[in-house]
Design a protein that fits this description.
10 strands; Calcium-transporting ATPase, cytoplasmic transduction domain A; 7-stranded antiparallel beta sheet; elongated; alpha+beta; 414 residues; 3-stranded antiparallel beta sheet
Length: 414
């Protein structure tokens, strides 16, 4: 079954015919067949084996120099230098390997903790299933707080607003309308009648048909960019540049030393031994491990701020940044709003209204509600002492919300 092209520009009837689905949802047999055809609704990620991660720690020109020095030390029977150099190489590799494994384990744990579920209608019954089992044609039911884990074409919506900051960088939620007419060549942020994977429902409710899953979603295209090999960091480039110049300098010095020794009448064996000794002494054995330790310290400092570093050289990349290219708004934000200044005729009344006519809870909800909740001192206490008796949910057309609360023992409205 081919998936509909540009589902946002097609009518609901066309979508239902293309997906062989409807408001009653798919049957269990349909779901199993489509799982086999389209696969699970997950972003597959290539796992790097531990052997590759360990061997990757030796992929440095400084390590190559150390290995060459160790071999030369062994050839000239300098066992002490050989053991020291091999020990330094090993410690350097173990530290980097341990840090990368720790980051990978933390990321895997986060993925398990954040595995989401979706409410669907299958065979006319409402069910809650793992998001990974969503298939094209599934009828998904969405409500406030739900994560959108597949690309969905809406066929019903009620005051539905969605947080698309993960895709567009915009802090304000976007109003969705299943009846909106969208051009075929519309940009992702213009899809008023559709929901994209990676977003979340802030207010209202809606229903829709899954039109793309897994690697077929728009969000998957962004994820693929994240999996591309990162360019070398400024520090890695600097080390490589230093190493090449250092080697060139050593070659010039060794050439001069060798030529001088030959002019002094020394034998070829004596000259070779002299040059080997000079080479071993010129190798900066401690530099790789010092560099690795510094990066590990930086990674640990970032981990305390809830930032995981998978690849150690990436630690110093942000510190070397000189130009940041932002999105069309020209801003880089945390994806949340906050109250900056207040002008009110009656601040107490404003504070009470901001607390009572508000649906934020535990730091979640509409960004404006969350910002007001954080601004109000004693938010939870005000709501507890003035219980809500009635509410008119936020209306995207009238741009308002109303509640009736018991204030000082008297029922009223906000």
């Amino acid at each position: 079954m081919p998936l509909p092209e540009s589902p946002h520009a097609r009518s609901i009837r066309d979508i239902e015919e293309s997906l062989s689905s409807g408001p009653q949802g798919l049957t269990d047999n349909d779901v199993q067949a489509r799982l086999l055809q389209y696969g699970r609704n997950v972003l597959s990620e290539e796992k790097t084996s531990r052997i590759i991660i360990f061997l990757r720690q030796f992929n440095s020109i400084l390590v190559y120099i150390l290995v060459a020095a160790a071999i030369i030390s062994l050839l000239v029977s300098d066992i002490k230098d050989f053991v020291i150099i091999i020990f330094i190489i090993g410690i350097n590799a173990i530290i980097g390997f341990w840090q990368e494994l720790k980051a990978e384990a933390s990321l895997d744990a986060l993925k398990k903790l954040t595995e989401s579920r979706a409410t669907v209608i299958r065979g006319g019954e409402r069910r809650i299933v793992p998001s990974a089992e969503l298939v094209p044609g599934d009828c998904v039911v969405l409500s406030e707080g739900d994560l959108v884990t597949a690309d969905i074409r809406l066929y019903s919506s009620s005051a539905l607003t969605v947080d698309e900051s993960s895709l567009t960088g915009e802090s304000l939620p976007v109003v969705k309308d299943h009846a909106a007419v969208v051009a075929q060549d519309a940009q992702p942020y213009e899809l008023k009648n559709s929901l994209l994977s990676g977003t979340s429902v802030v207010r209202g409710s809606g229903r829709g048909y899954v039109v793309r899953t897994g690697r077929g979603t728009y969000f998957a295209g962004i994820a693929e960019l994240a999996q591309e090999r990162s360019p070398d960091s400024p520090f890695t480039k600097a080390i490589a540049h230093f190493s090449k110049r250092y080697i060139a300098l050593l070659l010039v010095i060794f050439t001069l030393v060798g030529a001088t020794a030959l002019l002094q009448g020394r034998t070829a064996g004596e000259v070779a031994y002299l040059l080997i000794a000079q080479m071993v002494s010129a190798v900066p054995e401690g530099l790789p491990i010092v560099v690795t330790i510094i990066m590990v310290v930086g990674a640990l400092a970032l981990s305390k701020k809830k930032t995981l570093v998978r690849y150690l050289p990436a630690v110093e990349t942000l510190g070397s940044t000189t130009v940041i290219a932002s999105d069309k708004t020209g801003t880089i934000t945390e994806g949340r709003l906050s109250v900056h200044d207040v002008i009110a005729l009656d601040r107490d009344a404003l504070t009470t209204a901001a607390a009572l006519c508000n649906d934020a809870h535990d730091g979640k909800g509409d960004p404006i509600d969350v910002a007001l909740a954080a601004w109000v001192d004693g938010y939870d206490l005000i709501r507890e002492h003035n219980p809500r008796r009635w509410e008119y949910p936020f209306d995207t057309r009238h741009r308002l919300m109303a509640t009736a609360n018991v204030v000082d023992g008297v029922s009223g409205s906000m």
